[in-house]
Amino acid sequence: MPENEWVRIIPLGGLGEIGMNMFVIETADDMIVIDAGLMFPEEEMLGIDLVIPDFSYLLQHRDKVRGLILTHGHEDHTGSLPFLLKELPIPVYGTPLSLGLAAEKIREQDVRADLRAIAPRERFSLGGLRVECMRVCHSIPDGVGVALETPAGLVVHAGDFKFDPTPVDGKLTDYHKFAELGDRGVLVLLSDSTNAMRPGFTPSERTVGQALEEVFRTVRRRIIVACFASHIHRIQQILEVAARMGRKVAIHGKSMIANTRIAADLGHLRIPPDVLVRLDDLRHLSPAETVIIATGSQGEPLSAIARMSAGEHKQIEITPGDTVIFSARVIPGNEQAIARTINQLFRRGAEVITEEFAPVHVSGHPCQEELKLMLNLTRPKFFVPIHGEYRHRHHHARLATAVGIDPAHICLAENGDILEFTPEKRDIVGKVTGGRVFVDGKGVGDVGDAILRERQHLARDGMVMVVVGLHHQTRAIVVGPEIVSRGFVHLQDQEAFFNAANHLVKELLAGCPEEERGDASILKEKIKVALRKFVHKAFDRRPMILPIVIDVWGAEP
Ligand SMILES: [Zn+2]
Ligand SMILES: [Zn+2]
Question: Which fold has domain 7-200+363-436?
Fold first, then answer.
């Protein structure tokens, strides 16, 4: 084997979760990054705003990194871009809409970016690698897969895709290109596992238009549709149905307005004439003539729909007879927030239509038959299921076996694994520092697992603080003990507890040998242990205990 005939694929994110997708493709001379996504925090990540991949591997090899390719404009593929570009200013390649949406986020973070537009089927070079992107259908327009010619062979990343045979914009997933790549010989395929557990084909996005039309036909009053701000084809269909039914549409929400503007400017959204109105103008129209498109399909507390449901929206009051359509999937983790919003909407007399009652949503990801089709078109030698938790990737691996891929050639890797491929074999040759980095306010990575554990402890059990001041010479108590608690005992019980704790600390200090009274750290530990025991015995609770011992200077009072 010639020395350089290898390629390494290193997932920095996207294999332990649906989110923070990021891959590094490495050859002897070059590194290329595909996507830089984020994920939203899980419930136990208290106070965390965002989670991004650890990209220290890229920073360690900064001279080798030639650029980053975006497959599409979703946040799980673009959201950590501003954080990466701050540390590593590399050129970013993507289709115009992907770049347009990413640019908006990058601007918000005050980062400069070198954005380079590409078109599907247009070949370009990154370092020594030839790159070609191919169009794919997804729940956002202008998505692509990526093919890279490496010294070891062709690497194909299918992007987030589905095989919609009747896409809203008429732009099909590029079956021909994927088949052509298959003919040339694909060494490795990376493919989307999100729906690997769902049989059949994902229905066409157009079916949602039909379902919406049926709902619109029966409703006599105002219609409010909640969907993702990036789902331009969904917005397109709502606008078209509304126009056909003679309704006016107000687009509501900052991201919704920004995205529709960007998409319309780039020709991805065709707004029917005379259909759009401003939210304020709805007052002059009868409810039967109006539609509002808004954010909040996930029950996000600050979203337009959540505020309407809570009766806290300045301009829109939900009234009996209104119909609210949730035209989106429930993202795991958001069930309770969505249920709360729906309960409140029903309470206000609205009718609520979700995916369970009418086909007002379809997925943007491929189901099992489409996954098999992708495998059959590209016929890869090696296969890496991506974009999913282990269970999704496990099922995807089974589908690959079913279409004849050698099980020994399927890699169920983890984030951080270094997968090495040569024309003949594959191996995991090491691991890079990887994992999840928490973003909390202005801090990136300063909050780690230890702080999260503290936050969980505080959230679960509250805290008790003891402040005691000892005279610097005599070591007699001159301040306190003051006891303060938060999230621990009810006000009514507080006084009895404070008195008991106060007494306990005094006794403890009185019983301390001379040499220990001079050492604040010994005293703190003793107070902590004694108080923890007392609280546990009296309340069967384990709050965080924070003793503070201070030296008081000056004459003893
Ligand atoms: Zn996506
Ligand atoms: Zn995705």
Answer: Metallo-beta-lactamase; Chain A (3.60.15)
Domain ranges of the chain: 7-200+363-436, 206-353, 449-552
Q: Which amino acid is at 143?
A: G
What tens digit of pLDDT does each residue of 352-390 get?
999 998 999 999 999 999 999 999 999 999 999 999 999
| Architecture of the CATH domain 206-353 | 3-Layer(aba) Sandwich (3.40)
| Cα 468 to averaged position of ligand 2 atoms, centre (Å) | 54
Find, among 551, 557, 490, 485, the residue nearest to 520 by Cα.
551
Active site residue 365: yes
In angstroms, the CA 179 to CA 88 distance is 35
Q: What is the whole-number distance in angstroms between the Cα of residue 158 and the centre of ligand 2?
A: 11
Fold of 449-552: Ubiquitin-like (UB roll) (3.10.20)
Sheet with 443-444, edge to edge strand ranges: 50-53, 436-440, 443-444
Catalytic residue among 157, 252, 361, 365: 365
Instruction: Report whether pLDDT(557) > 60.
Output: no
Task: Tell me whether residue 280 is one of the annotated catalytic residues.
Answer: no
Ligand 2 midpoint to CA 193 (Å) = 10
Nearest ligand for residue 72 CA: 1
Lowest mean pLDDT among 242-256, 272-286, 312-326, 498-512: 498-512
pLDDT at 259 over 90: yes
The reported pTM is 0.86
